[in-house]
Design brief:
The complex is a heterodimer of chains A (265) and B (272).
Chain A (H helix, E strand, L loop, with lengths): L14 H16 L2 H23 L5 E2 L2 E2 H32 L3 H4 L5 H27 L10 H25 L3 H18 L11 H7 L3 H14 L6 H25 L6
Antiparallel strand pairs in A: 1-2
Helix pairs in contact in A: 1-5, 2-3, 2-5, 3-5, 3-6, 3-7, 3-9, 5-6, 5-10, 6-9, 6-10, 9-10
Chain B lengths: L21 H17 L1 H23 L5 E2 L2 E2 H32 L3 H4 L5 H26 L11 H25 L3 H21 L8 H8 L2 H14 L6 H25 L6
Antiparallel strand pairs in B: 1-2
Classes of the chains: A mainly alpha (265), B mainly alpha (272).
Chain lengths: 265, 272
């Protein structure tokens, strides 16, 4: 007699739930792609134009690389990380403020599945924006890819890192003001000052040491190394740092979801 | 005449306004000015900090190479540009975002239902935008002092161009906000029209860096007169004659004022 309702059986991983959460996160930004994909591409191209027009005559080469080719990977990385951060942080803050966070907390999704679902949504946005920006820039800059592994690894690991930071920020924030403050006063300065526009060899000695503790420096430098073949540090060190930071952040986000920090009463 | 027809002094009667409802104008100005001030971290601190970031980045990217731009030392060129940029940007945002928010939340009836004429609404919003923009500009000027430690060469011109620029972009934002049906529309206007128009008109580089054809187009951009005029006010050096800029900006402001006045008078998208 099996015609009475039985509880739904879910295996070790709720693949359907995970896929649904991921799709929700991706469709959320694709629905407003002019704001989430086209806008960052235009903004990044403007930065490229502004910096090459303002500085192109004074600064012809950086570390032996023509200025535009040096600048482009930094700008692409900047737009990727800003967007992967924006995706997860805005998703969580909006859901919390509007109360529809329960739609995510109630379904049979484990903390690990929530972490992975949100993180992959943000990473996807970063990668899509990155791809679109590379395409846009290729009309103006002569790209050559020296080390594809470094390009792909850092594109993925950096988007993932910022998606995870966005989740932590979104879980912590109680209102839009908090989130805007984190974006304006933490993420933007880090994204701007960690070597997007210049080689850190330009910095005073003390700041160069500090830079080596800043993961943003490794992602920008490693990504640039993938394109130009020139690096400010040991490339494999950057890979190790990014893998380590991503692991720690994954565990932290998983922990926050599992104890329900600021999400569950 | 029966005693009934003579109203007692304290009897309710229709409120009268003179030719201009000064109290209404002042209230409208204050309402939106204070709304912006309340979120000063976003409207004042963030733009000022972003300008500081830009100043740092250009400094580091140049790495000590000395550059002259438009007849000025690079910092002396860049700082007025950055201040002009935040003034223009804040002018736009002050009216545009407020108008879209009010429309989406239905709060626009507070403005439409008040005894304000279209002229008073337009003027109130334009003044609000100009004052908000100048305030953000002053904060940015202060934070950028380490990069350009000098008092304005011509403070009157500086204030005039900042005020005219804030009001001009405020009116653009107002028209954009009235037109927009959702956030997507207004951020579209901002990202694809306003910001490119500002970035490419002399904030970061002098127009002689542009190819000839682009240069002619850029010089038609009224924002360029604001940026060039504020650069004149701060450093005393400019490309265009300040009086030309003055005339152009007054004309553009007048034209935009008329456009917004017309939109309010016809109730474009805000009255059934």
């Amino acid at each position: 007699m099996t015609d009475y309702p039985t509880p739904r059986h879910i295996g070790a991983v709720n693949w359907l739930g995970l896929w649904t959460l991921y799709q929700k996160e991706v469709r959320r930004f694709l629905n407003v792609f002019t704001q989430t994909v086209a806008a960052p591409v235009v903004t990044t191209l403007l930065f490229l134009a502004v910096f090459t027009l303002a500085l192109g005559r004074a600064v012809e080469v950086v570390n032996g690389v023509p200025f535009a080719q040096f600048l482009a990977p930094g700008l692409i990385m900047m737009s990727m990380v800003q967007n992967s951060f924006a995706n997860t942080s805005s998703s969580l803050v909006i859901a919390k403020v509007q109360g529809n966070i329960v739609d995510v907390l109630m379904p049979p999704l484990s903390a690990a599945e929530l972490t992975v679902g949100f993180a992959m949504g943000g990473t996807t946005r970063g990668l899509i924006v990155g791809t679109a920006t590379v395409t846009g820039m290729s009309f103006f800059v002569d790209f050559s890819i020296q080390h594809p592994f470094f390009v792909l690894f850092h594109a993925f690991s950096a988007s993932l890192m910022l998606a995870l930071l966005g989740m932590l920020g979104g879980i912590w924030s109680e209102k839009f003001d908090h989130m805007a403050a984190v974006t304006n006063f933490v993420i933007t300065p880090f994204a701007f000052l960690s070597g997007t526009f210049y080689s850190i060899k330009r910095l005073p000695e003390a700041f160069q040491v500090v830079a080596h503790f800043n993961p943003f420096f490794y992602m920008i430098d490693g990504f640039r190394y993938g394109f130009t073949g020139v690096s400010d540090t040991t490339p494999m060190l950057g890979v190790a740092v990014m893998a380590g930071v991503d692991t720690v952040l994954l565990l932290l986000a998983w922990r926050l979801f599992s104890i329900g920090y600021k999400l569950k009463p | 005449m029966t005693p009934r027809d003579v109203p007692a002094d304290d009897a309710p009667c229709a409120r009268r306004f003179g030719r201009v409802s000064w109290i209404g104008l002042w209230t409208l100005f204050l309402r939106d000015f204070l709304r912006g001030l309340e979120i000063w971290k976003i409207t004042i601190a963030a733009p000022a900090l972003q300008s500081l970031l830009f100043a740092f980045i250009f400094q580091l990217a140049l790495g000590g190479v000395s550059v002259t731009m438009g007849g000025l030392d690079f910092n002396a060129f860049l700082v007025p540009g950055l201040i002009a940029y935040v003034v223009l940007e804040r002018g736009f945002e002050s009216t545009a975002f407020m108008m879209v928010y009010d429309k989406l939340e239905g709060m626009i009836t507070d403005v439409v239902g008040a005894p304000l004429t279209p002229a008073e609404m337009t003027t109130g919003f334009a003044l609000m935008a100009a004052v908000s923009a100048v305030l953000t500009g002053i904060a940015t000027w202060a934070i950028l002092l380490p990069f350009l430690a000098a008092l304005p060469a011509d403070p009157v011109a500086l204030l005039f161009f900042a005020f005219a620029g804030g009001s001009m972009l405020g009116l653009v934002g107002l028209a954009g906000g009235l037109w927009a049906d959702k956030w997507d529309h207004i951020t579209g206007v901002q990202t694809f029209i306003v910001i490119p128009a500002l970035y490419m008109s002399g904030v970061f580089f002098s127009l002689d860096r542009l190819p000839e054809a682009f240069r002619a187009v850029a010089e038609l951009n009224p924002a360029w007169y604001v940026i060039d005029g504020m650069r004149y006010g701060l450093t005393g050096t400019a490309v265009a004659d300040p009086w030309t800029g003055c005339v152009v900006l007054l004309a553009v402001n007048a034209a935009l004022w008329l456009l917004c006045w017309r939109l309010f008078a016809t109730g474009y998208k805000i009255k059934a």
